[in-house]
Design goal:
The structure is a homotrimer of 313-residue chains. The first copy, chain A, has 13 helices and eleven strands. Chain A is α/β, with parallel strands linked by helices and 313 residues long. In chain A, strand 1, helix 2 and strand 2 form a beta-alpha-beta unit. Chains A, B, C: Pathway: Amino-acid biosynthesis; L-arginine biosynthesis.
Chain lengths: 313, 313, 313
Amino acid sequence: MNYTSIKDIDNLDQWVQQAIKIKKKPLKNKKLGKNKTLVMLFFNPSLRTRLSTQKAALNLGMNVMVMNFGSEGWTLEYEDGAIMNSGSSEHIKEAAAVVSQYCDIIAVRAFAGLQDKEKDNAETVMSGFLKYATVPVVNMEGATGHPLQALADAITIAEYKTKARPKVVLTWAPHPKALPQAVANSFVEMMQLQDAEFVITHPKGYELNPEITKDSHIEYDQDKAFENADFIYAKNWSNYNEYGQITNSDPNWTVTAEKMKLTNNAKFMHCLPVRRNVIVTDEVLDGPNSVVIEQANNRTYSAQLVLQKILKK
Amino acid sequence: MNYTSIKDIDNLDQWVQQAIKIKKKPLKNKKLGKNKTLVMLFFNPSLRTRLSTQKAALNLGMNVMVMNFGSEGWTLEYEDGAIMNSGSSEHIKEAAAVVSQYCDIIAVRAFAGLQDKEKDNAETVMSGFLKYATVPVVNMEGATGHPLQALADAITIAEYKTKARPKVVLTWAPHPKALPQAVANSFVEMMQLQDAEFVITHPKGYELNPEITKDSHIEYDQDKAFENADFIYAKNWSNYNEYGQITNSDPNWTVTAEKMKLTNNAKFMHCLPVRRNVIVTDEVLDGPNSVVIEQANNRTYSAQLVLQKILKK
Amino acid sequence: MNYTSIKDIDNLDQWVQQAIKIKKKPLKNKKLGKNKTLVMLFFNPSLRTRLSTQKAALNLGMNVMVMNFGSEGWTLEYEDGAIMNSGSSEHIKEAAAVVSQYCDIIAVRAFAGLQDKEKDNAETVMSGFLKYATVPVVNMEGATGHPLQALADAITIAEYKTKARPKVVLTWAPHPKALPQAVANSFVEMMQLQDAEFVITHPKGYELNPEITKDSHIEYDQDKAFENADFIYAKNWSNYNEYGQITNSDPNWTVTAEKMKLTNNAKFMHCLPVRRNVIVTDEVLDGPNSVVIEQANNRTYSAQLVLQKILKK
């Protein structure tokens, strides 16, 4: 069993309930991971994912080996048949097969480069590990998805919702740096598995990959989208059509207290790190309806559920 | 309970005796830290602190997660109300609150930048963690203090002193690079809690922050200061008045065997790393009265005492 | 007991049999390392060594502290009597002595710089740790040797050989970057302890240090060397005479399927990382006779044997 995409969740409601159970007694399965080892490979920076996934593994009694692949290891080649006489020192074929022998689960973080849409969509790194690793692979944010985050988001919504079918709004917000679509993508895919009124709002032209959004409701008027919302999930992403570009930085898309008044006393969510007063104002983020810290807390239980499921297989 | 300053020591003599007890049986409290996690966040390089604090936590049975914040995480913002549309990706408010959820104690190393006296004196990073973390914070060297080092120094003095009230001299020595005042500051504050004849000696103009030295005896004549000393503690710091500048590199301040002859067969101390033949000559450092290696050894027990006290609360 | 050279192996056959036994029951000595700590110091990148040595220590129940010395610690000085008023912050004398107090075994990786033959041959870093550490030292690849790799190679040959006295060929192969001779050196020294027909093949001028090759058979005709071989071990090294230079990049030395036909159905070995289609073609590396992945797997048991022997002393 791998966990590299929301598609790996067979029953979201059940998973969320199981995660909430883990959260209540995080050390209950302390023996499950005895003598099992998680290797965490980072091709990009990480704070929450780094610490919460490690913590989850420790809660299960696992050993953890953390490696920053870029600075501590070798540059990898991903192309089949490559003549490796320039930059790359090692092919993913060997790297993934070898690392598999030193551990029981491999977790990988490898962001989108945002330079080459096709390459990012191919999830070169994650797919390489999936193909050549001989142990289960966990996605700690790939080029196109961040399923551990989306699972934590689902837990958070389950904890805070006050009605069976809440209105959940994913709103784009401006950001000074070009960011991947990964978090938004997995959130959309996760919401498609939920009983909810789900709305995506963003400026025209900022459509996510239509193969991911499918028939999810897109509303270009942010104010209209916010009406009666129970959850506002803010997130920036760079343009998917003009790939990796920032074509809009309109501050009117920043989530403000005034805009939150349009909602049904909505909870405010964000995956963090968040740019204060750019994505969202201090007033909202520091307000009583902000659940971003608890949402980050749920990262531990999201990861622990996934590791636990893999260990039990 | 936090440990971010010498002021957090309620009874120095008692602490030192407890640390010496720990040193004799370092594994006695191996169960105290079971299922507890220490997160160590480094904003700067570290050898002794990195390894001894980890070792201390392991002696207590704790889990440890180590993170080099600069290269592995996100650039932090510390200012309230900042519009985060440039370099910083995450505010200390979120970072400290989030990390707190993944561990039981946060230890932080964040050196003085030596560019902005006011900012360094405000201990921006350490204060940020103290303010927003929801678990205890331990200082692994901040901008203005290094209390784990000073506690190890106190242990070392207790172990080697041959009289109830030894003469202890903190001497400035030259150094090619501008260094923070942190180690000297905490040593001074720690000595102010000791029954000792304490003398600080340095070139005129190299006064430490007077709010720290208070009425400690300052002697500008190094030879005179060394007379009858039982302990010579050498340390460079950059100019505090002409903040962060090197205004003196007089080799006459180097601690030599000849100067040590002025003392009462004094033990030589330094926090390490030490520049040989700049701070102190090989002859002194390699001589029988040098206790720098044992002093470094005491870093483990200093850290272990602090972690143990926090865990017991 | 240290393990910094093949010379530290007192009985290769016995060691290999012990390692194979460990491989069958890797957790049998889980209690041996209880409350013992391994410090791994990296002055260079590492994938296999980093993870397999850690894994070996975990299999023995040890604690592990990993440190990238270059980026996380201080620049070290190795020269006796140095006046340290420029780049280096700490002398190996203090560093090695201090680290020894925080652990039970120190493992060190420090590649050849390939700039200064004499300095590389002196093994400045490794020798420094050997001289000043007060706990056992393990070589995780030094300037002139990689004995953990060679021990893994010996295990691999033992596992795959089909006759008492196999023909083993170490063949040079081209590489775009200047590489150290360390792996080749230790392999040669290890083979000299084996009952085997051992042949080294490389272009004229690419002779390894004659103090290491001694009377090992050197054959400049690669085809002739391959005849009837049972094992082909490919490895690039830069020129030892024109020290650290690349004076040959002849693609005819690449190991191909055609060349492998000259052998006695030989197994193909390489220490990894390997440049595909430069050192060896995909066809050979992906073929049924390639044992490079199992060879990498044996790194765990090679390291575990060494750690186990040290712990038992």
